[in-house]
UniProtKB/TrEMBL annotation:
The keyword Ligase does not apply. Belongs to the FPP/GGPP synthase family. This is Geranylgeranyl diphosphate synthase type I. Residues 346-362 have a biased composition (Basic and acidic residues). Keywords: Magnesium, Metal-binding, Transferase. Residues 340-362 are annotated as: Disordered. GO terms for molecular function: (2E,6E)-farnesyl diphosphate synthase activity; dimethylallyltranstransferase activity; geranylgeranyl diphosphate synthase activity; metal ion binding.
């Protein structure tokens, strides 16, 4: 029933239904808030995104023995759809912290709010206003994610109780991962272990591992299934982030929805950069070290400057080293699927999605 585009459409339908119900309540409180904050949040959630997290939660449900159809399947998918609101929360905050101007090929939320301020000729600093309004929209998304999740499971109290652990853990891990990312930039942390920890908590846990855990918990899966899914999620989630890091320098804006070199300009300390810096120092290539260090966190980098850094990292072997680690993670993740008593249909689907998510052609 819920395959590919049909699954995507079903998730979007649940989100539309939930947001439609909330629209009247916020309009009754304040029409400007409804138009500017709610409208922007709803548009972001409904008009974009690959629905990766709800889809993994669905396949966690199926892997744990959940049915493909019926009232419980519908409730499980509706609950999983709340992960898109968690994603909106994370992206709105992340773009403010990283000062990212573009998200999904259009101005980021805080940029759009700042433009409202400028066009209205309002008092104060438009940038500060834009960032503050985006953080409020993020807060709203997180509160509503919890409302949607718990409300969807009203008829399944036992399942809701089982899912509390992964739901709560996911939120904490997200915040810790975001903090580690922020601190690593502030400290100019060059340790290769740091981006791996950030990837584990900020991306892998809430993008793949915990959604799978969540779905399996809803289905009442046994410990072996949950453990196998979490091993898979940890490996594939980390691989997915490494692919994203590579796409930041070697991808295309039309493909990623972001400017090439955005992470570099923002000062994000990726594994790719950490490996490149280590290799440059080991070889005594002081010019390469200086080029890399001067580029990290430099907002004025041109596309040509970004290409120089990308070519330098490739020449140092950092790009291939990250590709090799990514391939090992992919192998580790798919192997874990065969070591746990996961429903066959879910095993094959998760194997396919793993290769699709981290393919070199992404």
């Amino acid at each position: 029933m819920h395959r590919d585009h049909r699954l995507h459409e079903a998730i979007t339908g649940h989100l539309e239904e939930f947001l439609d119900r909330r629209s009247a309540s916020v309009t009754g409180l304040d029409t400007d808030f409804a138009a500017e904050v709610f409208g922007r949040l709803a548009g972001f959630v409904l008009d974009g995104g690959k629905r990766i997290r709800p889809i993994f939660a669905w396949w966690g449900w199926r892997a744990g023995g959940g049915t493909d159809d019926g009232p419980e399947a519908t409730a499980a998918l509706r609950a999983a759809s709340a992960l898109e609101l968690v994603q909106a929360f994370a992206l709105f905050q992340d773009d403010v912290m990283d000062r990212s101007a573009v998200r999904r090929g259009r101005p980021a939320a805080h940029v759009e709010f700042a433009n409202d301020h400028r066009s209205g000729g309002w008092f104060g600093d438009p940038v500060r206003y834009g960032e503050s309004a985006a953080l409020l929209a993020a807060d709203l998304a997180l509160v509503w994610a919890d409302d949607m999740f718990t409300g969807a499971l009203r008829s399944m109290p036992d399942a809701r109780e089982r899912a509390r652990e992964p739901w709560r853990a996911m939120h904490t891990e997200m915040v810790v991962g975001q903090f580690l990312d922020l601190r690593s930039q502030a400290r100019s942390d060059e340790a290769e272990s740091t981006p791996l920890r950030v990837n584990r908590l900020k991306t892998a846990a809430y993008s793949v591992e915990r959604p799978l855990h969540l779905g399996a918990a809803l289905a009442g899966a046994g410990e072996e299934v949950v453990a196998g899914l979490r091993r898979y999620g940890k490996a594939i989630g980390c691989a997915y982030q490494l692919r994203d890091d590579l796409l930041d320098l070697y991808g295309r804006p039309a493909q990623t929805g972001k400017a090439v070199g955005g992470d570099l300009r923002e000062g994000k300390r990726t594994l790719l950069l950490a490996v490149g810096l280590r290799r440059a120092r080991e070889r005594g290539e002081h010019g390469a070290v200086e080029t890399l260090n001067s580029a990290i966190g430099s907002p004025g980098l041109t596309d040509g400057d970004v290409r120089v850094v990308a070519e330098l990292l490739a020449a140092l072997g950092a790009r291939e080293a990250v590709e090799q680690r990514l391939d090992r993670l992919l192998e580790e993740g798919t192997r874990s699927l065969t070591e746990a008593p996961i429903a066959p249909a879910a095993r094959e689907e998760l194997r396919r999605r793993a290769h699709e998510a981290v393919s070199r052609s992404n």
